[in-house]
Amino acid sequence: MQNRLFAGLGGVSLLFTFSFFFPWLGVIPLVSFVTLLGLIAIDLLLLYRIQNGIFARRHSPDRLSNGDDNDFGIHTENFYPFSIHVGIIDEIPFQFQQRNIWFDVKLKPREIKVISYQLRPVKRGEYDFGRILLYVRSPIGLISRRYQFDDSEILPVYPSFLQMRRYELMAISNRLSETGIKKLRRLGHSMEFEHIRTYVSGDDQRSVNWKATARKGDLMINSYTDEKSQHVYCIVDKSRSMKMPFEGLSLLDYAINASLVLSNIALIKEDKAGLITISEKIGAIVPADRRPAQLNKILEVLYREKTRYLEINMELLYSTVRTTAKQRSLLLFFTNFESLSAMERQLPFLKRIAKFHLLFVIFFENTELQKLKEEPARNIEEIYIQTIAAKFAHEKKQIVKELARHGIQTILSTPQQLTVNTINKYLELKARQSF
To answer: Which residues are listed as membrane-spanning (predicted)?
Structure first.
């Protein structure tokens, strides 16, 4: 039933009502009613005389990327010999918590149209997509005919492979600096000469090959190979401290996305990438390797990981690192500390790990506390809240200093900048040959 039909019925009702008070209206109300019934009959005939007047199909990727905008489309095709208006509902999974996936489309006879939209998942797992519902109206527009297409499918949501591909392309084309990743100055040229190539923005100007530049008429530089086959392990804490959400994603998901991107960059740089996940018990271990299937192995492991509700077992982590990483490796430990006392409980084991490996402890700034600090206080209660927020923010900086005092390097990052800051640190160490 459409608004036009309600308006028509309301108008006819008013005419019949007024005819009691104004006899001069005569048969006008009856004629109007018969005309309305005739239009309804014509509308029904137009819409239902063709069994399958429209077709729809959902275009979706094979898998979704967590935390990213994923592209979807609804393919529609009009088989009616006249123009139609179509209202489209796509039954998207409940995890998105959206009830506004409604599209109004006008289709000419035999016209094909694709409606594009995007969905951003914030949890890994399986997402169940349902039917596509279409409500078709003819040019008369009094009633609508419902079509439904059972286009049900279950799509897995993996860690952010779209982000991984974006950084991969930039790493290959030497354009990482365009996304905020620093181009780091190399300390000398102790590496092996590889080839001469064209200069691109961000290259070290000291590497310019002036003889080749004179011959080619374009700026050319010497390219050197980095030291290869170093071991890089991402250690992901999946205990309750990583459950905290920021912009829909949990800290664990931010750490997982950063781990996937970093593992891919490490493999591109011909290092060996590995993975360890842990809470009160060991979750998964992927020994460092650089075989072609290594990235898919890491991706599948990260897809299944979930936060747990107990504290991390640091003694178990220490023994696992000692048995898994047989040679000196770069360990990037993604965790979170909300207080100095929480860090001090883990400090003895971090110090022991740092004796054998280059350890980086990566934890998170609380951006919500930062917002509280910046808001103007209007009463005593808000002053008290701001004071507590400032105290917690200061403790984060104290944690950095305390870890540095014991020779443990740190990365304190906002969740949104975690991937960029982690890659920056890896490229810096790679440039300095520091591990």
So the answer is: 5-24, 30-48
Answer yes or no: are the C-beta atoms of 66 and 121 closer than 8 Å. yes
**Which residues lie across from 365 on neighbouring strands?**
none
Q: Are 157 and 180 in contact (CB under 8 A)?
A: no
DSSP 208: B
Contact predicate 131/148, CB 8 Å: yes
Instruction: For residue 58, give the 3-state DSSP assignment.
Output: strand
- Concatenate the DSSP letters of all residues of 333-344 into one string: EE---SSHHHHH
* Higher per-residue pLDDT: 374 or 328: 328
**Sheet with 125-129: strands ordered across:** 64-65, 153-158, 125-129
- Which CATH topology does 227-432 take? Rossmann fold (3.40.50)
The DSSP result for 215-232, as a single string, is: HHTS-EEEEEEPP---EE
pLDDT tens-digit series, residues 12-58 = 888 888 888 888 877 888 888 899 899 999 999 999 999 899 999 99
Close Cβ partners of 112 (under 8 Å, ≥ 6 residues apart): 75, 76, 77, 78
**Among candidates 301, 174, 312, which has minimal Cα distance to 238?**
312
Which residues are bridge partners to 331 per DSSP? 233, 359
Domain ranges of the chain: 3-48, 54-158, 227-432
Interacting residues of 305 by C-beta distance below 8 A, sequence separation 6+: 124, 236, 238, 252, 256, 277, 283, 284
Q: Which two tokens stand for residue 204?
A: 């070290």
pLDDT (tens digit per residue) in 89-100? 999 999 898 877
The maximal CA–CA distance of the chain, rounded, in angstroms, is 106
Is residue 314 within 8 Å of residue 239, measured between CB atoms? no
Question: Position of tokens 């910046």?
Answer: 374
Amino acid at 275: L
Q: Write the CA distances from 425 to 174, 257, 312, 422, 429, integer angstroms.
A: 16, 16, 25, 5, 6
Contacts of 111 (CB under 8 A, 6+ apart): 77, 78
The pLDDT value given to residue 331:
95
DSSP state of 142: S
Residue where the block lists tokens 């949104």:
416
**Which DSSP category does 324 fall into?**
H
> Could you name the CATH architecture of 54-158?
Sandwich (2.60)
Encoded amino acid at 9, one letter: L
Report the b/e string of 381-390 with b at 16+ CB within 10 A. Answer: eeeebbeebe
Cβ–Cβ < 8 Å for 358, 330: yes
Interacting residues of 144 by C-beta distance below 8 A, sequence separation 6+: 1, 2, 47, 87, 135, 136, 137
Which residue shows structure tokens 């997509």? 129
